[in-house]
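Let us walk through a complete example step by step. Step one is to write down the protein sequence. Step two is to encode the small molecule, zinc ion, as a SMILES string so that its atoms and bonds are unambiguous. Step three, shown after the inputs, is the structure prediction itself.
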Amino acid sequence: MKILEFFLIAILLLALTAIPVHCQSANESVVEKLNALVEKDKEGLINATQDLVKIKSVRDVPQAGAPFGEGPAKALNRALQISSDLGFATTNLYGYIGYAEYGQGDEYVAVLAHLDVVPEGDGWTYPPYGAEIHDGKIYGRGAIDDKGPAMAALYALKAIRDANLPLGKRVRVIFGCSEETGGPDVEQYLLREKEPVSGFTPDAYFPAIYAEKGLMSFDMSKNLTDDISDNISEEPRGDIRIISLQGGTAYNIVPDRAVARIQAADPDQVAAACDAFAGMTGYNLSAEIAAEKDGAARTIRITSLGKAAHGRTPEKGKNAAMQLIAFLATLDMGSAEMSEAIRFLNASIGMETDGKSFGLVMDDEPSGNLTLCVGLLNATPERMVLGLNIRYPVTYSFQDVMGRFNQTIEGTGFVAENWQANQSPLYYPKDSPLIMTLTRVYAEQTGRNDSAIAIGGGTYAKEMPNIVASGPMMPGQEEVEHQANEYIAIDQLINVTKIYAQDIYELAK
Ligand SMILES: [Zn+2]
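Step three: the predicted structure of the complex.
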């Protein structure tokens, strides 16, 4: 073989092995172009994020044109101003929600972000509305939830426009203003606008959330007859009477503290029973006997301490209210109805968080088991109320859960009422086109092989048809949203923008 031929063959072989690597993504040059444009606009993106973080957009009393108060309306106006300065058409839907739009076509792809924030709280190192940059991070309430991601989506759309890429669908970056407080921003949007054909909300984790459990919050309550209330002071029976039970602050948080106020003819006996029960169970219960006599019966205060946890993972907590119920179930009450109610609660719920004894065991592969969180406990001699937060797996329905629930409470006098929330599950199979696209783009941009995630719910994706949550958090990233010293790292802001640019392009092309 002549040397020249050898070289030609060698070059040919090299070229052949190199080609498949180079053609892995048909879009490679498109993606490179988009990524470069995102880098070029880095300063604008940082400034826009800072601008919005500086506006305190916590929900407040409604005003004309500002249904969620002055702050959210100001943030919406600013975001739309930034959008129109970048050359996008904008629409403000009466201060509820607004959007920037680009492109042509009947159908559109949506990125649904939110501009409202939760209150800042205490414990900040840097001013919560200062948007100061330290160590490459923008600090402030809303930096990652969800103002940074909102601007990332807008600058992603700008990159697509500047790259002059042909799109088959319009694209909207939608700015909601009441995500944190449960609406009705998206509801107002859907009254006036057609729904998107696909899209995502940049308000959770990468690569994408493919399953969000169904969620319901409501009261389980019962009216009681206080059958010893008239004679307790004149004619003590030696019976125990509950004056009040109180525990918890919200439906979706496991109570870390609950208190019972009790009257008893022999308070020392109750206190001793409490100590013995605490010793036996390991529950943190303590009894304190009031100094002065209240008629013949003296008051005892029993405090139960547990551990708080989010309603989507109640098994991580220790329910102080149900610990208290467990102890009270061992006592003989003067009121037979109160006694019955407490024993029913202890037997049918107790310390369980999966609804097993209530007949609510439900489980599926995509999303795991049903969770039940007793978030609130309130009782007087006349009424017992438990605030429940139930999250059920995605292949079950509201009727499945409530059918079984009503069966268990039948004949107990308890009713389900005062509904606070009722969201259907959200489920896109992992091989659905939307989840596949978001997962592939994420893998191409980051080189990571994470798979789509199931959560206890619920994001904006439950309110807007045809979208799922995707980003801005990396799997396993430290959670800073809703906490002091919330921040978004500038590197992450840029990377997220690159991923979103490719996402939007792939969904809208
Ligand atoms: Zn959010």
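Step four is interpretation. The chain has two domains: 27-212+426-508, 214-423.
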